[in-house]
Amino acid sequence: MMNKIGKYEFVAEPFHCDFSGRMFLGHLGNQMLNAADFHSTDRGFGMKYLMTIKRSWVLSRLAIEMEEMPSQHERYTIETWVEGAMKFFTSRNFCVSDGNGKVYGYGRSIWAMIDTETRQPTDIYSIDQGAINNWIVDDNPCPIEKGGRVKMSGNAALVRTIDVNYNDIDINGHVNSVKYIEHVLDLWDIAWYREHRLKRFEIAYVAEAHEGEKLSFYREQTSENEYCVRLVKTETTGKETEVCRCMATFSPMNQSEA
Question: 200: which of 27, 60, 220, 249 fits an S-S bond (Cβ 3.0–4.6 Å)?
Fold first, then answer.
């Protein structure tokens, strides 16, 4: 029988790495989503099958916590498994390592299954008579904290507004999940990243944004090395809607990391 935990190998390509030669967090997040798709497809509840019955997985929350990022040309492994399932949501975990025992970090995610026509949540257990339960792993705990509610005051400052363009849009017709992460991390310049390492990133998705709309970024420092960001879309009609909230936790770079 196929293992409940999927294990997939990737390479940190140089053009997926930043000025320091370490992988961009956004690209690592993208590879986590690829691993999730490989895992679910191999086990009969992936996007390829779901699209034939007008269903789709939608990422609701993602938390990534890294002690170190893979360097350019390094091979790394992403393991992924389903931690639990409910009627409308399922939780999936990730472990990023070098494949030989060295762990770079972990990820936690929450997914919803939606009807692609109504865009409303649909019953996960209706797929193959609830077969997802056969793949739940309850004896491999993920050591990082679950993503929580990102709390912000009304004092967050507007720091940037951008247009939603072609390269932001994915196959579902809305802004790609990882694009939000990349745009948020662009709020800090290279000088900041020369002195700070991104330790943990959380994002909670609320609504979808589309081409032609504008995204406004409101940032608030909530502790010494922690920042929260709220993204608000402005539709072509002028209506404003919050689309997601993020939390970025940094740690000062020590001399050996710099």
Answer: 249
List CB contacts of 48: < 8 A, sequence separation 6 or more: 41
Closest by CA position to 105, among listed 139, 75, 68, 142: 68
CATH of the domain at 108: 3.10.129.10
Residue 126, amino acid: S
Model's pTM, two decimal places?
0.94
Number of structural domains in the chain: 2
Burial tier of 136 (Cβ tally within 10 Å: 0-12, 13-18, 19+): middle
The amino acid sitting at 35 is A
- 139 and 172 assigned to the same domain: no
Q: Which residues pair with 109 in a beta bridge?
A: 62, 92
CA–CA dist 127, 122 (Å, integer)? 10
Q: Of 146, 174, 193, which closes a domain? A: 146
Domain with 68 in it: 1-146
pLDDT band with cut points at 50, 70 and 90 for residue 258: low
Query: Rounded to an integer, what distance in angstroms lies between the CA atom of residue 211 and that of residue 208?
Result: 10
76-101 pLDDT, tens per residue?
999 999 999 999 999 999 999 998 88
Query: What are 141-188's pLDDT values in tens digits?
Result: 999 999 888 999 888 999 999 999 999 999 888 999 999 999 999 999
8-state DSSP, 212: T
Same-domain pairing of 126 and 210 = no
Domain end position, chosen among 106, 126, 146: 146
Query: Looking at the chain, how many residues does it have?
Result: 258
